[in-house]
Amino acid sequence: MVGLKEELLKSIWHAFTALDLDRSGKVSKSQLKASGGRRVLSHNLCTVLNVPHDPVALEEHFRDDDEGPVSNQGYMPYLNKFILEKVQGNFDKVEFNRMCWTLCAKKNLSKSPLLISDEDAFKVWVIFNFLSEDKYPLIIVPEEIEYLLKKITEAMGAGWQQEQFDHYKIALNTSREGLSAWELIDLIGSGQFSKGMDRQTVSMAINEVFNELILDVLKQGYMLKKGHKRKNWMERWFVLKPNIISYYVSEDLKDKKGDIILDGNCCVEALPDKDGKKCLFLIKCLDKTFEISASDKKKKQEWIQAIQTTVNLLRAGSPPPHKEARQKRKELRQKLLAEQEELERQMKELQAANENKQKELETVRKQLEAAAARAAEEEKKRLQTQVELQDRFSLELEREKMVRQKMEEQVAQKSSELEQYLQRVRELEEMYKQLQEALEDEKQARQDEETVRKLQARLLEEETAKRAELEKWHLQQQQTIQMTEAEKQELENQRMMKEQALQVAMQQLKQLEMERKEALEQYEEVKKKLETAANNTKSWKDKVAHHEGLIRLIEPGSKNPHLITNWGPAAFTEAELEERQRSWKGKKATSE
């Protein structure tokens, strides 16, 4: 419940700080006690958190208090005592965050146009609350910014620009410790790290990261589920979360059909193909078992592994992977910070010890100078009393030599200690540099490992794509060869048919030529016959002209009625007929 309270406080902090502040930086008591403030900060929180609202407690809490909401009677103590302590976790987190977002977005969201929609900005704001540090005012450190941008870039299917982010990180570290929620929204909405991507791709990537980090969606997708009563197979959209698998009619999540409650006693195992269904696996719970069919073997293995990992986490009592990773990143940052502070403390101690040694050396030098001054004074006295105190002087001289030797030995020893101390300081400085280089090498090794892993994945995808493309080209080439052979055969058949038609046409042409020649010959013959007949006719007309009484050429008859003979119509007139009758009778009489 402590972690849940911290998550709620981050969202409420945004809504709380979005209220109008007075000159002292406090929300006035009159505002909080007014109907609008009470409705926004109390009633709405109680509604979305499913906590009974007690307006009387709010009035009693602020009675006779002039110190504002940060005092013992302020709004935050009221929030902790009367609202947050009663939260049970049975509320819609998205609806709660949306209510807090509504109160603070209008005032804080940038007015400049962004490449993301308001809905995407809301999701980035919720992700910020999840990844931000547990101190106020809330900020997100560069390491978490890098983690979030990498997740979004991977979801877009683009390559991560580490060098570009390093330049941005250096510029950021020189000015501040991290970014606020609104600065993070501006950074993602500016498209600085998503150049070349359209709005829809960026929106889908933000939604995927939101589902994973905020909604705890570990995996989702379409699969077939066997019914418990009718035993029929229906396609459902499955959503895997840390302790439950929900399945819906479609991916819009509007029509929920049921849940599979997961605990440490659940297990998942693969099934052989049966009833015409492939890629089967079974989820066993205490009260029910569920048979599910994936679309292919890869999806089947991914789902089995994801569900088994979730069950193992439930057995171990561990949080979801992304929350555990966030906690490890925080612990690593705290460890590095503690090590850095320890190094700084040691350096300060070394500096203090160095200063102490310098002071000691200065004291020894002054002692030597004082001793030399005393020796000079004594030397002067010795010269003055040389005659009287010759023996004593000799003794004093020997003693002085011994003192000087001891002092020189002490100076040499102090100098040696100082040299050793300076050598130790240099070694510690070198050790500090080596430690920094080791940390940089470790960081570079991690980046190289991530780069190699992405490169291997990209090369594998390219090899798969090229292999599929080569198979496609080979199939197209075979189809082209088959089509070419068929077209070649068809063209050969057409050529043969055309050659046969040409031969037939040639034969017909030759036949027509022969018939033309024969017709020409016949024409010549007919022409000759016509000429002969014309000549004959001409001679015959001459003969008729001499024997006009015997034969008369047929000419157009008169308009008088013609006579009819036994042989048909005749072109004779009555006079001619009478003439012919007399001629016939005369010939008959002569013959008798």
From TrEMBL:
One Gene Ontology CC term in the entry: nucleus
Subcellular location: Cell membrane; Cell projection, Lamellipodium; Cytoplasm; Nucleus
The UniProt record lists the keyword Nucleus: yes
Molecular-function GO terms, alphabetical: DNA binding
Regions that span the bilayer: none
InterPro entries: EF-hand_SWAP70_N, PH-like_dom_sf, PH_domain, PH_SWAP70
Keyword Translocase: no
Source domain of life: Eukaryota
Keywords: Cell membrane, Cell projection, Coiled coil, Cytoplasm, DNA-binding, Membrane, Nucleus, Phosphoprotein
Pfam families, per database record: EF-hand_SWAP70_N, PH
PH domain location: 216-312
Coiled coil: 322-543
Function: Phosphatidylinositol 3,4,5-trisphosphate-dependent guanine nucleotide exchange factor (GEF) which, independently of RAS, transduces signals from tyrosine kinase receptors to RAC. It also mediates signaling of membrane ruffling. Regulates the actin cytoskeleton as an effector or adapter protein in response to agonist stimulated phosphatidylinositol (3,4)-bisphosphate production and cell protrusion.
Binding partners and assembly: The SWAP complex consists of NPM1, NCL, PARP1 and SWAP70.
Designated name of the protein: Switch-associated protein 70
Organism encoding this protein: Machaerirhynchus nigripectus
Gene designation: Swap70
